[in-house]
Design goal:
The protein has one helix and four strands. With about 80 residues, it is mainly β. It has one domain. The strands form two sheets. It has a two-stranded antiparallel ribbon. The chain has a two-stranded antiparallel ribbon with strand order 2-3. The longest helix is centred in the N-terminal third of the chain and has 4 residues. The N and C termini lie far apart (about 40 Å).
């Protein structure tokens, strides 16, 4: 067995997550082209599933493009 390379020991470890997910509710929404929303604050994670079309998200000077069947996890 090979010893761990040095670069591997310098990687940060992610915390072990062993928890339940509690859903507060859900909804389906269709929006028109060029729809936008102001900055939002959530007290829980938000899970989005793009059912059809394309969603372009601009956040903190970065642009993200999501397509049908993409799943987005937005932290609180």
């Amino acid at each position: 067995m090979h010893p761990n390379p040095e670069w591997l020991t310098k990687l940060p470890n992610l915390p072990e997550i062993n928890d339940n997910i509690k859903f507060f509710g859900g909804h389906q929404q269709s929006v028109k082209y060029n729809w936008s929303v102001d900055w939002e604050c959530h007290h829980a994670f938000e899970i989005m599933l793009i059912v059809s079309g394309v969603q372009q998200t601009k956040l903190r000077n970065r642009e993200y493009v999501f397509k049908a069947e993409d799943i987005i996890l937005i932290p609180p």
